[in-house]
Amino acid sequence: MKQKQYLCFDIGGTHVKWGLVREQGEIIEKGYFSSQQANHRIILQGVREKIIKFSSMIEGIAISTPGFIDSSRGYIEHGGAIIGFNQFHLQDSLEQEFHLPVSVENDVNCVALAEKWLGNGRDLSDFICLTVGTGIGGALVLNDQLYRGHAFRAGEFGYMITQGIQGNSPLKSSLNGSSSLTAIRKKYASYKQLTLEEVTGEKLFQAYDQHDAFARELIDTFYQSLAIGIYNTTSIINPQKVLIGGGVTGRPTFINELDQALHCVDTVFHVDIDSCHFKNDAGIVGALAFFHAKYQ
Fold it and tell me: Which Gene3D superfamilies does the UniProt record give (predicted)?
């Protein structure tokens, strides 16, 4: 019997990834388009064009997007990087236009759902999913269920303060302020008098490997802050494992280097860490996992 097909979107501040996906999670066709510096009008235009193209082939639309999201009704309270999505009824808007069922879920929650469904979280009842990229994101799976919190803010580990408060802005001492790739790229670019565009994450880690003193200082602090964040969360939740996602996990030595930093901090809980199974397709697969949970 032919499997049903769904159109899935993973919306980000730089690109919108899309995939035509069979009901068991197999991606048939995929691509991406630019989100034009997180321009919500450009994003919605691109989403609508893809829906029109595939509408005769699909049974529904599944969306992963940043922000604080009431996924029960597909309402985006705060759109994160997509400012124009604040207080936006995305599910209602698309359902009224295309007469297809639509689901909307937070992007990192979708990563966790992808791992729980078909990835490295399949055999785990309790785990943390942490994504490291432009910012630090997180999601919690407890007792085999995604935990969202009463105001849809659970797992926002990037806001966790991991250093002494500096000046009048506590967020500068948060994981996002100290350990996101954006934060350390900015510090390195300023120190070396380079533009931010010249300092990619890959080039920064290359400088680290070449024993650039300032790069080593920044990245050692990056690992230490991440380790403190993991320690803090595991001391409260006591998960079986922490799964790490994001482009930085493409570095072959990343998990080992982070584990070494964690062992320096954590002498009590000894949580296992691993990379996520899904890489760039995690949001697409996880969006479909949530669609299934919502409608089936």
Answer: 3.30.420.40
